[in-house]
Specification:
Blueprint (H helix, E strand, L loop, with lengths): L3 H8 L9 E10 L2 E9 L5 E11 L3 E7 L7 E9 L2 E9 L8 H23 L4 H9 L1
Antiparallel strand pairs: 1-2, 2-3, 3-4, 4-5, 5-6
């Protein structure tokens, strides 16, 4: 429920609240490249550290590469299509096989993960603004 412009600002801000993430911190923003260090929870409650690189292709979408964690080696693209004050988000990508999981189970897990993250981002974006993000960084 946001315009692509707002989504690009949000994706450059970091500190996104997600149940699957213990920490989500922007470590670098240079030109159209945003680098994030994150800790994600494993099913047993422990965490793994990963690096997420977003290449912002304004206004069309974001190309993401993940190093570390359960999605190590994943590359995927979010494509944005404006729909008035909302944005349609399409996702496609390549995810490495996960040991011990069938392809169907892995696809279900990936779909569930992104469905949850998109729902959390949608809720956050309802009350988020670039000014709010700047105030958080200054605090």
């Amino acid at each position: 429920d946001a315009t692509p412009e707002t989504i690009f600002q949000y994706m450059s801000a970091g500190n996104h609240p997600h149940a699957a993430f213990k920490r989500h911190e922007v470590t670098s923003v240079k030109d159209n490249l945003v680098t994030i260090e994150a800790e994600t929870y494993k099913p047993d409650g422990s965490t793994s550290t990963l690096s997420i690189t977003h290449r912002l292709n304004v206004p069309n979408g974001i190309e993401t590469k993940v190093t570390g964690g359960a999605f190590d080696g994943a590359r995927f693209t979010h494509t944005y299509t404006p729909r008035g004050d909302t944005t349609q988000v399409d996702l496609e990508g390549e995810f490495p096989p996960m040991p011990g999981m069938s392809e169907a189970d892995q696809l279900q897990m990936i779909d569930g993960f992104f469905t949850m993250v998109f729902a959390e981002d949608t809720e956050t974006l309802r009350r988020w603004s670039p000014a709010h993000a700047l105030a958080e960084r200054a605090a």
